Structures are given as C-alpha cells and as structure tokens.
Amino acid sequence: MNKIMKTVFGSHLYGLSNPNSDTDYKGIYLPTLSELLLHNYKPRINFDTNKDGKNSALDVDMEWIALPTFIQMAIKGESEALDMLHSDKAQNDLEYSYIWDNLVSKRNLFYTKGLKAYTGMLRGQFLKNGEKGKKLKVIKNLINMLVKHNGEDRLRDIWWILPTGKYIKKGFNNDESRHSDERFWSVLGSKYQESIKISYCIQQLQLKYDNYGHRAKKAEVTGGYDWKAISHALRVGYQLCDIYECGTFSYPLSQTDYILAVKAGELDYTTVVALEFDRLVTEVDELSEKSALPERVDKEFWDNWLLAQYNNEFTLGELW
User: Fold this and answer.
1) How far apart are CA 250 and CA 15, in angstroms?
2) 187 or 317, higher pLDDT
3) Containing H/E element for 193?
4) Is the peptide bond before 252 cis (omega within 30 degrees of 0)?
5) Angle value at C-alpha 240, between 266 and 282, nearest 5 degrees
6) CA distances from 251 to 10, 76, 190 (A)
7) Residue 193, exposed/middle/buried by CB under 10 A (0-12, 13-18, 19+)?
8) 103-137 confidence digits (pLDDT tens)
9) What percentage of the chain exceeds 90 in pLDDT?
C-alpha cells in the first residue's frame, strides 16, 4: 500500500479522550495506477479489533481512505476530512509523505461560505441524538408497566390504563382491512392492535428496544441524551467559527474544556447546552456571510492537483 499519511483520530486527535476512549487511526493511501484507471480501488479499507460494536480503551480502529475519495470528501466540506487536514505533526502521531505536505499547504482552498450548511445537518443530529435515550426510556417504562398484567389478556382489557403522550397515542384504523374497526395503540410509530395479547406486545416492544444502538442505551441512563454526539456537534461548530474568523483552526480548540464537560454530561441540556448550540449556529451563519471566502470549492483545481500527483508517482510502463 502506498501510504500518504496516517494520523491518530477521534477523541485523541481532538484532545477529548478519557481512560475509556478507544484508539482510532485514519490514513490516506494512493491506489495503484491500474486501480485508478479502471476505477476499481476501494474507497475505504477498515481494520479494527472491535467485534461486538462496543468500543473500549483496548480497541484499535484503523481506516485507510483512497486519495481521490479523500479529495471529494474535502471538497464537500465533510468534517472527517477537515479534521484530518488539521492533524498536528508533532502532537498527533502523524506519519506523512510529501503529497500530504503539499495538500495541507493548500487546505485553505477547501474553505467556503458553504461550510455553514453543515451546522444545519448538525442541528438535526443534535436534536435527534438528544431524544434517543428518552425514547428508550419510554419503551422500558411501558414494558415494566405491561409485565404487571396477565400476558394472556388483550390490550383491550387494559385499554383504560394504557398511557398516551409525546411518543404514544391511541386511535382507530382508517383503512379497509379486517382491523379497520379496531383501536390501535401507537408507540414510537409502531401500531399495536387492541386485540393482541399483552405478552405479544411486550415481545414487540422488547425487539424495538433491542434494535437501538449501545450509545442510545447509554444515553437512556444519562438523562436521555447522547452527550458524545452532542459534544461532536458543538466541536464542529467551534471549528467553523475559527475558520471564518481566524482563517483556520488547530487542536486542541480553545473550547476543549467546555466540550469535555458536555461530553461528560456535566451541564444541563435545556438551560445551558441547547442555548449554546443555538448561539453557535447563529454565529457561524453571521461569520460566514461576512467572510471573503468563495461560495464553493474550485473542483477543477483539485482535479488538476490529483492529476499532477499521479503524474509524479506513475509511469505508463507500470501497467505492464
């Protein structure tokens, strides 16, 4: 493999690691000439020691990204690429080649006003991940309530005590099926007919609960919030502010202590964290509008840059 760079990634790169953090590495490789011409290279190659989906401090994840794939990621303004472009050689266990040096020297050409659009996506992620734990708690509470009743009874037998709320409602089917005149109990979008056994409803709710990821289940017992995802959204927002205001950013960010407090769930979501995120999104929007950055990345420049790297690395004779 022709390696262009390799760096520590994730919390160890950001200065946000703790004793339980696993070790992530990201790298970029240059496919062979034949792979490039035939376009049959692997965009990403993964190696990891984690087998059950639950990373621990002993796990090591390594991912190699093909150079043309990486350039497309950076053109799109993906935070993963921007993070790698700001990995510090001295601090972050970075291995690199002259191609990487050349690329980093031009990283400002990936900065655009359009990067602010990323905060819109993060806002959705921010809100979504803030709700996952709450939804799990709702399911768990409903299961705990139902197991107190005879499993052979039907939902209609306890209809009057079935709760309703933000994620739960009752209604009638309005289709032409044989259940059209039956009531249903809806939990997080799944409908349970009043005629089903309580035991079956418990089984289905348990399946729904089990399908959530381990981070959502962790959020269930930490106030209902995925603090890791929330801290990630804040970090990206601060990075964008630095790009628009200072022309670049470097790790650790000046807000690292605050981000660590959020990640640890030490701050109130509603009165502190959510308000800070709303303020941050507004600031990013305002700084973007005032900046002199272009509206979009010059894709032709990066196409030519890639061709220049290929020209330096390969000769046609390598095909035979």
Assistant:
1) 11
2) 187
3) strand 190-193
4) yes
5) 75
6) 12, 22, 44
7) middle
8) 999 999 999 998 887 777 677 666 665 566 678 88
9) 53
- What pTM, to 2 d.p., does this model score? 0.70
Give me the long-range contacts of 159-164 (CB less than 8 A, separation at least 24): 159/183, 159/185, 159/194
Beta strands at 23-30 and 60-66: parallel, antiparallel or unpaired: parallel
Integer Cα distance of 283 and 97 in angstroms: 37
How many residues belong to the chain?
Answer: 320
310 band by pLDDT with thresholds 50, 70 and 90? very high
Q: Which residue from 70, 104, 95 is spatially nearest to 3, judged by alpha carbons?
A: 95
Domains and CATH numbers, the chain: 2-109+296-319 (3.30.460), 115-130+225-290 (no CATH), 133-220 (no CATH)
Predicted pLDDT of residue 301: 97
- Positive or negative torsion for Cα 250, 251, 254, 256: positive
- Asked if 228 and 68 count as a contact pair (C-beta separation under 8 A), the reply is no
Sheet containing 183-187, strands listed edge to edge, beginning at the edge strand earlier in sequence: 168-172, 183-187, 190-193
Cβ–Cβ under 8 Å, residues 206 and 146: no
Tokens, residue 112: 């655009």
